[in-house]
Amino acid sequence: MVKAYLRYEPALAFGVIASVESNISYDFSGKHILAPALEKIGVWHVRQGVCTKTLAPSNSSRNSLSLAVTSIASSPSSLIASGYGDGSIRIWDSEKGICETTLNGHKGAVTVLRYNKAGSLLASGSKDNDVILWDVVGEAGLFRLRGHRDQVTDLVFLELGKKLVSSSKDKFLRVWDLETQHCMQIISGHHSEIWSMDVDPEERYLVTGSADPELRVYTLKHEMVDGQSTTENGTQPVNYGDLSTQNKWEVLKKFGEIQRQSKDRVATVRFNSLGTLLACQVAGKTVDIYCILDDANAKRKAKRRHRRKKEKKSSKGAAEVAAGKDEKVDVEEDGNDTSITVLDVFKLLQVVRARKKICSISFCPVTPKNSMATLALSLNNNLLEFYSLESNASTNTFSIELQGHRSDVRSVTLSSDNTLLMSTSHNAVKFWNPSTGSCLRTIDSGYGLCGLIVPHNKYALVGTKEGKIELIDIGSGTCVEVVEAHGGSVRSIIAVPNENGFVTGSADHDVKFWKYQMKQKPDQDTKQLTVSNTRTMKMNDDVLVVAISPDAKYIAVALLDCTVKVFFMDSLKFFLSLYGHKLPVLCMDISSDGALMVTGSADKNLKIWGLDFGDCHRSLFAHNDSVMAVQFVHNTHYMFSVGKDRLVKYWDADKFELLLTLGGHHADVWCLAISNRGEFVVTGSHDRSIRRWDRTEEPFFIEEEKEKRLEEMFEDLDSAFENKYTPQEELPEEGAVALAGKKTQETLTGTDLIIDALDVAEVEMKRIAEHEEEKIHGKVASFQPNAVMLGLSPSDYVLRALSNIHTNDLEQTLLALPFSDALKLIAYLKDWTTNPDKVELVCRVATVLLQTHYHQLITTPAARPVLTVLKDILYARVKECKDTLGFNLAAMDHLKQLMASRSDSLFRDAKEKLLKIRSVQSKRLAERSDTGEGKRKRKKQKKSK
């Protein structure tokens, strides 16, 4: 009988506050901050410092590597957009915590997302150099804008002119007209890659930042109804009739340059919600805060500057002729309103300095009463900081840091009863609840490389890089004692089975045996844990790992010379020398029955040894990089290994077979720990995350997993072959427009489903026609419908197949249809227009098919009657739907006006005020019922009556 194994699946990931791959963003209310946590998004309550929700995509494939969040954008509503490394975009409802839709269009990682002010449109930029505009309401892509020669770094909507500005690493800005879908202006001038840009809320200035030593500021020209244009910085309106053709399309005009304080490149440029502050974050530890003056203050500052300049020139006593010319120029400048320079508008207010390198910034959309603005920073050490900006200084008001390590998780250790998890990093030890992922204790320590939780979960031992052993009281969260144990880093610490002791191995060539006991020191009131060295074994090289057999008979020591020495535990006499690895052994473990030992090395191999004779049973190529940890499941010969290739692998040491490959980490995996019964596995990584993998009741077989791995390998080869030999498109300099979607496995599957539905419907229609003909000839027989069609008519069956396709994939699905099937599909459109809910779908299908097969349709006589009927019906149906929507919008607008007329405040404020009044009233009623005040009042009323 074929042996079945139980599957392990990812269950929990914790320890990451803010990863470095993406930006942070406030939500629309300003109460929550959206922080990327590798493949998830954490929704943190700013005041409470608690993660209230986690937005995580569902794993479509068990063994697929999870993709990190690369960009986040929040809309004016509760919707949140997140971009991923594979080019997909997910739209989340932050209040419900669910994914509304997934948009596929980019072939590279999404680098920037930006909503328009209404929240109905979403623009996305990617490493594939394309910009895609998405309809958020319709959950579909509108069009793709091509023209940039390198990845898109930032996007900005210009609401007044219905434009979109994009910046790229190709050093160019492009202004796109969203109505005509073309590039109307290309702006050069930067000497290096443009990394960020932003426009103020009133759309007066657009600021761009690069690696250049200055910020570039542009003024915006907006089109007016009377055919004139104006800029918002005080210049006079200019008539379009006086402009040349080039100036007519000039939306952005250079205003000036602002010298930056830092030499590092600009990472992010952002205005606050009021447009009064500008933050310039560099790829370092500082954020420059600029104050934007209004027109009146800017003019006063310009006049003062001109006056000082004039006084300075007159004091020099220059020649009379030259002085006369200068005075003339000064008079002209004083009388000209356009003499305002960028330095008159932008004034450096202060510089915010963080403790570590800043990854991204975000202004709070709600301005606090006691300060100018609130700025959130995400640092590259897994930390969120919040600063209150005032006119003369900035104050660090709050930090979110306790829920994660500042650096790599170097070791994870489970307690004997699996209720406590200890993790170590370069400066702290943290204790977790492994079932919930909540952080219980955080204790400052040295650089912990290994750890051990003493039985009864009262104390823990940590071996540090400095060669010390730290004794930690878990209950009080304090370090009780620091023992100078070794002269080099403590690489391994392991408990002696069935004894009150442990063994440490160090880089100082020593293996030391320790005994711990409870003692009361003279200056202490209670007994504390103390350790004492009982024996020391000298080795010839650095000790990397130590392992003890479960019966405490053997001790194995892995040395830097790539060998493993096995000694008798009691006498410390030499027993075996295991050699075969080409690079040092970094991890090892002995099975529960003491029969097998497994070693993992930097040569990427696992070797399984027999401890009876020291023979190598099998050498397995395990990982694509160094094997960092390996451990047997208790009472079995199954084992887990982790490596620098980011993978967790599950093995059978008897059959020498790979059982499962678990992908989820985004960086090197350093350590692992397995529960006593093997019901879950915990791993720690360079990405600062701790992940738990649970054993399920679902069985699997080795052969099936082998076939799946082969299929995935061939799919990867096919995709690599296609990408290599796909002809590269030459992009025109002016920019171009293309379809927003991309061909995926889902679109090809949707095309197959439509073709199958058309074939089944065609056969069914023939059967119906034959049955009708038999009825005419008098051969009456009961008609048996096709069970495959689920009792639907042929038209409804095809409509059902078409409706099941995601709206974002509809265009690419229809593009893959052959012309013969497209003609069949057009014939059904007439019947579907009778359903008001499907009019929009019918219009989209008709538009795509007509655009795709236009030349074939006009030359096909069979298509003309169908198109003629559609022409008469479709316009009427669309007009009916438009009238219905208009009527509903007018009714809602009328209700809004009625609500606003009953209150002095705005509609939204009135609604919030009403809800607050109701909540206060309900609280008072509850309090009265609790205190009995209501009863007393009712008695008084009865007596008065």
Automatic annotation (TrEMBL):
Compartmental location: Nucleus, Nucleolus
Pfam families cross-referenced by the UniProt entry: Beta-prop_WDR3_1st, Beta-prop_WDR3_2nd, Utp12
Highest taxon above the source species: Eukaryota
Region Disordered: start-end pairs: 301-326, 922-945
Compositionally biased tracts (Basic residues): 301-315, 935-945
The organism's taxonomic lineage, starting at the top: Eukaryota, Viridiplantae, Streptophyta, Embryophyta, Tracheophyta
UniProt cross-references to CDD domains, sorted A to Z: WD40
Gene Ontology biological-process annotations: maturation of SSU-rRNA
Keywords: Nucleus, Repeat, WD repeat
Organism, scientific name: Erythroxylum novogranatense
Protein name, UniProt field: Small-subunit processome Utp12 domain-containing protein
Keyword Protease among record annotations: no
Family per record: Belongs to the WD repeat WDR3/UTP12 family.
UniProt repeat feature WD, residue ranges: 62-102, 103-136, 145-186, 187-221, 402-442, 483-524, 578-619, 620-661, 662-694
Record SMART domains: WD40
GO molecular function terms noted in the UniProt entry: snoRNA binding
Major localization listed first in the record, in broad terms: nucleus
Residue spans of biased composition, Basic and acidic residues class: 924-934
Entry GO CC: Pwp2p-containing subcomplex of 90S preribosome; small-subunit processome
InterPro entries to which the protein is assigned, alphabetical: Quinoprotein_ADH-like_sf, SSU_processome_Utp12, TBC1_cilium_biogenesis, WD40/YVTN_repeat-like_dom_sf, WD40_PAC1, WD40_repeat_CS, WD40_repeat_dom_sf, WD40_rpt
Stretches assigned to the Small-subunit processome Utp12 domain: 795-897
